[in-house]
Design brief:
- This protein has 404 residues and is mainly alpha-helical.
- Helices cover 68% and strands 1% of the residues.
- The protein is built from 16 helices and 2 strands.
- The protein has a two-stranded antiparallel ribbon.
- The protein is globular and about 85 Å long.
Length: 404
């Protein structure tokens, strides 16, 4: 997305979600963005607690692997479970797959313990738990389980699609069975391992390379979550946004809460879409029921557009602060030049020649004033962008399928 020429538009965001693909090879989401997006899977009170702890700088779970690696791990576990569930896997291959699956499940369980039972994050003593509950910063264990489940679904680009076995199904296993049966000697296990790596398409946790200069996602909902998290990261990492110049703007919006609420709405929308499709599939030829579903769906179509606009507002804030950062870098150069100019002034004053230094100082002051005026413009633009995203009502409603 950073490679997209010019500013990101509403048409861009809509097209990316329709195609489930974003341009370029954007970096993975930060763990902070992943936690906030995962909080969309917990209840509303639990989500408020996650946002409050992050806003107050209180500790939150720090995984032993990144959230994106955890998503890739979960993807590989699901893939292996599907392969073993076919029941037609050659015995030697199935044994290797079960061993690999056990190792991955063990690694996932270690990450779950960190999130759910990790020490030094949430209070563990009776007195500490009571105190954190009074302060409304204690996340209950069942909410932590939901948070971990959300982390397992962290938006992730280019998940491996699997190799020959996944594409060809049991037929590929039948054809390879005779080949595996011919293995003998000490090299058999190594040969089986090599075949499995090829059959699964890639090693566990490894990403597929971007195709045609873009990165793909599971669906449009996940794409929208990734876009929101990506621009949240760009804002949070920007030096201009963290500077004193935008202190008022930072106080006018809680970006942590905004990302968490966007995630909650997208998760709810996606769940409703799945349930609605199932209801339609099971309705058979009941025309009245199908008409009712169509009517309810039509009433909810604008919500997807509203979500797109909220994410677009985040992109505009990111682009505004990035432009402001360029102005701040120029002002920093002016400051350094001013320091150098003071030293030159001191030397010239001793020689009696002050006119050149005074002219240079006047020019430098004019340049600084020009830069500050430009920053004031950026600050006004940011105020307008922030006004578009806060506050937002709860919108647990359903869009049309990536409404065109």
């Amino acid at each position: 997305m950073s490679a997209t020429p010019g500013p990101v538009t509403a048409a861009d965001v809509r097209r990316w979600t329709q195609d489930s693909r974003v341009p370029g090879d954007p970096p993975p989401l930060s763990d902070a963005a992943a936690l906030l997006i995962a909080s969309g899977h917990v209840t509303a009170p639990g989500r408020v607690l996650v946002v409050r702890r992050m806003s107050m700088g209180l500790p939150l779970p720090v995984l032993n692997v990144s959230a994106v690696e955890l998503r890739r791990l979960q993807h590989s576990i699901g893939h292996l479970e599907d392969q073993l569930a076919t029941g037609v896997m050659p015995g030697m291959v199935a044994t290797v797959l079960r061993t690999r699956l056990s190792g991955m499940v063990r690694k996932r369980e270690e990450a779950r313990r960190i999130v759910v039972l990790g020490k030094g994050i949430f209070a563990s003593s009776t007195r500490g738990i009571r105190r954190e509950r009074r302060e409304n910063i204690y996340l209950e264990i069942d909410e932590r389980e939901k948070l971990f489940a959300g982390l397992l679904a962290t938006p992730c680009a280019n998940l491996p699609g699997g190799g020959g076995v996944r594409r060809a199904g049991s037929a590929a296993v039948d054809r390879i069975a005779g080949f595996v049966g011919n293995f003998a000697g000490r090299g058999a296990a190594a040969n089986v391992e090599e075949w499995i790596n090829e059959a699964l398409g890639s090693k566990p946790g490894q990403a597929s390379p971007p195709s045609r200069g873009s990165s793909s996602f599971a669906d449009g909902y996940e794409t929208l979550l990734f876009i929101a998290g990506h621009f949240y990261d760009r804002i949070q990492r920007n030096r201009a946004w963290q500077s004193d110049f935008f202190e008022i703007q930072r106080g006018a919006v809680n970006l942590h809460a905004e990302l968490a609420e966007i995630a909650a709405d997208v998760v709810a929308l996606r769940g409703l879409r799945i349930d609605l499709d199932r209801a339609r599939a099971s309705s058979g030829y009941d025309e009245d029921f199908s008409a009712h579903l169509d009517q309810r769906e039509a009433a909810l179509r604008p919500v997807w557009t509203q979500l797109l606009e909220r994410v677009l507002a985040l992109t505009e804030i990111a682009q505004t602060v990035e432009s402001a950062a360029a102005e701040l870098r120029i002002l920093d150069e002016y400051d350094r030049a001013s320091t150098l100019d003071t030293r030159i002034d001191s030397l010239l004053a001793r020689s009696g020649d002050r006119e050149l230094s005074a002219d240079h100082s006047r020019m430098l002051s004019e340049q600084v004033r020009s830069g500050e005026e430009q920053l004031r413009i950026y600050r006004d633009v940011l105020q307008g962008n922030i006004a578009r995203i806060s506050p937002h009502p709860e919108m647990y409603q359903l869009p049309e399928r990536y409404e065109p």
